Amino acid sequence: MSDKLISIVIPVYNEEKQIYKNIEIISKILTKNGINHEFILVDDGSRDNTWKELKRLSLNLTGVYAVKLSRNFGKEAALCAGLENVSGDACVVMDSDLQHPPEKIPEMFSLWLDEGFDIVECVKTSRGKESLTYKLSSLLFYSMLKKLSGFDFGGASDFKLLDKKVVDAWKEMRERNTFFRGMSTWVGYKKTQIPFVVADRLDGNSKWSPLRLIKLAINAMTSFSSLPLYIVTFLGVLFLLGAIPLGIESLYMYFKGHAVNGFTTVNLLLLIIGSILMISLGIIGSYIAKIYDEVKQRPRYLVSERLDSRVRNAYSKLSND
Ligand code: UDP
Ligand code: MG
Questions:
Q1: What is the pTM of this model?
Q2: Which ligand ends up closest to the CA of 14?
Q3: Which neighbouring-strand residues pair with 162?
Q4: How far apart, in whole angstroms, are the C-alpha atoms of residue 304 and residue 67?
Q5: Which segments of the chain does DSSP mark as H helices, in order?
Q6: Rounded distance from Cα 232 to ligand 2 centre (Å)
Q7: Alpha-carbon gap, residue 138 to 273, rounded angstroms
Q8: Any residues with CB less than 8 A from the CB of 287 and at least 6 apart, and which?
Q9: pLDDT per residue over 218-260, tens digit each?
Q10: Quick check: 163 pLDDT over 60?
Q11: Counting atoms of ligand 1 from 1, which one is nearest the CA of 11?
């Protein structure tokens, strides 16, 4: 067994039926492969018995650290809570529903340990069961984000291994609204990708509503690019260029005494410019909203309870030594 410790960070939200079983499965796979590990589980304000299950888990399994957030803060905040508490030499971030196959962890581990990669990303080759609209909107989202930010997040998932120094770098990023996928690409470092097939969810449904996904998409775009703001300026210039000949024509008509004509043109111009102005205001508004959110400096999440069975793990490690 390698003496390196891997922290497995898992956000958990309303997963009472499968969380215990799933952690056991992951733990078994890691132990079988001789990977020394601890679990950092974040209960994202579940309303079912998830926390009870985590308690049961921490009684029966050593090396479990669990925090319960005071309410549902969303997966991104839950990931922050997890990452801020890792103590291993590297950490693996994954979902609690086994859609991120734990069998991949040994491969990620050896890429990190033997080949010295700081970030090992698992890239979706197939997206599992998803509706066509979901697939299309995700395609649209990633291609827009790539154009806007210059980073390619396509196929990116939250299933990653990060070296301790990457986690430390990530901690330096102080924004309130986080986008984990983007931030772990932004930091750089030596990285590699391995493909994986998204497994089907065993129990329950995806916790993401369309509204939540739209919010995440807007947050991602405004966090990683200020290009939309420049597009506003660009549109302004474009309209100015169009306005010059039209203005000259209007003046010409006025002096010739034909100024009453052209009502349709005025109507169209009003409608087009009106809508573009409103969209532009909206874009600027979304950045201002973001600034407002950030300057409030609120905590990303609040913790209401903690469980720790890592101490026992530390003792057993000592006694092994
Ligand atoms: N999750 C969370 N908070 C939320 C929603 C989801 O912590 O508000 C967790 C959830 O328990 C799971 C992971 O995030 O471990 C991914 O969620 P889900 O499987 O619902 O999303 P999908 O697989 O559709 O991306
Ligand atoms: Mg899932």
A1: 0.72
A2: 1
A3: 91, 119
A4: 8
A5: 19-32, 50-60, 75-83, 105-113, 132-149, 164-171, 180-186, 210-224, 227-256, 263-295, 310-320
A6: 37
A7: 30
A8: 222, 226, 228, 229
A9: 877 887 777 888 888 888 888 888 888 888 888 888 888 876 6
A10: yes
A11: 7
- The protein residue with its alpha carbon nearest to ligand 1, atom 13, reads 95
**Residue whose token pair is 């030596």:** 190
Q: Which amino acid is at 192?
A: T
The pair phi, psi for residue 163, each rounded to 5°, is -70, 160
Amino acid at site 97:
D
Q: List, in order, residues 6 or more apart from 193 with CB less than 8 Å away.
A: 120, 121, 122, 123
Copy the structure tokens of residue 86.
Answer: 């890792």
Residue with the smallest CA separation from ligand 1 atom 21 is 206
Q: How remote is the CA of residue 95 from the centroid of ligand 2, in Å?
A: 6
Q: CA 65 → CA 77, 99, 253, 280, distances in Å? A: 17, 22, 78, 46
pLDDT tens per residue across span 106-162: 999 999 988 889 999 888 876 666 677 777 777 787 777 777 777 666 667 888 999
Give the closest residue (by CA) to ligand 1 atom 25.
Answer: 206
Report CA(273)–ligand 1 centroid distance (Å).
Answer: 41
Residues with CB under 6 A from ligand 1: 11-13, 15, 44, 72, 74-75, 78, 95-97, 99, 206-208
d(CA 220, CA 141): 10
Atom of ligand 1 nearest to the CA of 94: 15
Cα–Cα distance for residue pair 314/20, rounded to 1 Å: 22
The CA distance from 45 to 70, in Å, is 6
Q: What percentage of the chain carries pLDDT values higher than 70? A: 89
